[in-house]
């Protein structure tokens, strides 16, 4: 359950659903396995797995949810080989070439034929909502996986006004300044990894691992105009991670001291164990995110969510109609 990657989103409207109500909204969208002809299924499962039956786990004001995605695995090489064999049989039998559209139809037939026997692969995607901080924190290595979870959550509860968390100072500019001055921000230290890019040439990339980031060699690249797009950081000697230019935290590692802190809660049973881990992790990540935003000049609130844009547009249309009615009336 300990998150390995963070994609953080800012709630632009107050989240008012409690754990019980949120659970009720998620229940109609609970996960069910793929049928014989399904290629993918997505739904909500208990964060506690087989040890729980609630789709929402609440502790200290945080709401943990978990989505399961199941996909049928059909190797492209196997499908293409079968399609090629069928196309060749038609060509030999009818002495003609098989066109692109007919090949696509053959592929559709092959997928229909093979899907019931395909292996199904399942993955769990954890996230938690922090209404007090106005954040949604998702354990996802890619933006597409995080957006998929948010889209399914939005479908389940009807509306979810969120935007990716952003800072007033661009991460790549701040990280470049930190390395150029050999000075990590308060509460942080440099790890031994970074990625440098030339902003004028996307193909110019330098990746450094197990290196002294304050060495002259790194400084020379910065003087040449390269910027830091990924930077390894350690927060309070407790959490190590890789920060990128999208304000995503990757390859998170929790210190043994933090893990022992959760272990020392004398939890009894799987549910209490999960609750202790979740509580310690969420509290530590909340403090980390706040320190990181402080180092980046604070959170930016300029970006509006889709829901806000639609609401403003609707409000503007209503005002226009009201003015038109008023003009006609008087």
UniProtKB/TrEMBL annotation:
Domain of life: Bacteria
Record InterPro entries: RdgC
Compartment(s) of residence: Cytoplasm, Nucleoid
TM helices/strands, residue ranges: none
Sorted UniProt keywords: Cytoplasm, DNA recombination
Keyword Cytoplasm: yes
Role of this protein: May be involved in recombination.
Family label: Belongs to the RdgC family.
Name of the molecule in the record: Recombination-associated protein RdgC
Protein's organism: Microbulbifer spongiae
Gene field: rdgC
């Amino acid at each position: 359950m300990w998150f390995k990657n963070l994609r953080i989103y800012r709630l632009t409207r107050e989240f008012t659903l409690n754990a019980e109500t949120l659970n009720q909204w998620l229940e109609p969208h609970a996960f069910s396995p793929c049928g014989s002809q399904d290629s993918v299924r997505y739904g909500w499962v208990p964060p506690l797995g087989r040890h729980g039956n609630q789709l929402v786990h609440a502790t200290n004001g945080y709401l943990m949810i978990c989505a399961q995605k199941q996909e049928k695995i059909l190797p492209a090489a196997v499908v293409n080989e079968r399609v090629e064999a069928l196309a060749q049989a038609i060509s030999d039998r009818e002495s003609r070439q098989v066109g692109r559209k007919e090949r696509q139809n053959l592929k559709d037939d092959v997928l229909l034929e093979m899907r019931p026997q395909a292996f199904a692969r399942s993955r769990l995607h954890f996230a938690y909502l922090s209404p007090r901080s106005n954040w949604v924190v998702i354990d996802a290595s890619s933006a597409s996986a995080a957006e998929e979870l948010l889209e399914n959550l939005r479908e389940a509860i009807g509306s979810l006004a969120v935007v990716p968390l952003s800072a007033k100072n661009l991460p790549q500019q701040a990280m470049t300044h930190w390395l150029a001055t050999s000075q990590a921000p308060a509460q942080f230290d440099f790890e031994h990894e970074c990625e440098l890019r030339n902003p004028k040439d996307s193909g110019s990339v330098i990746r450094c691992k197990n290196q002294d980031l304050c060495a002259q060699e790194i400084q020379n690249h910065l003087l040449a105009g390269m910027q830091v797009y990924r930077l390894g950081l350690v927060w309070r000697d407790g959490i190590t991670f890789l920060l990128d230019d999208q304000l995503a935290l990757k390859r998170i590692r929790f210190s043994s001291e933090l893990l022992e802190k959760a272990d020392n809660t004398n939890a009894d049973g799987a549910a209490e164990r999960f609750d202790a881990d979740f509580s310690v992790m969420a509290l530590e990540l909340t403090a980390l995110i706040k320190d990181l935003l402080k180092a980046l000049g604070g959170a930016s609130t300029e970006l509006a969510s889709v829901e806000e844009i639609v609401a403003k547009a609707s409000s503007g249309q209503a005002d226009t109609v009201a003015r038109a009615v008023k003009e006609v009336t008087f």
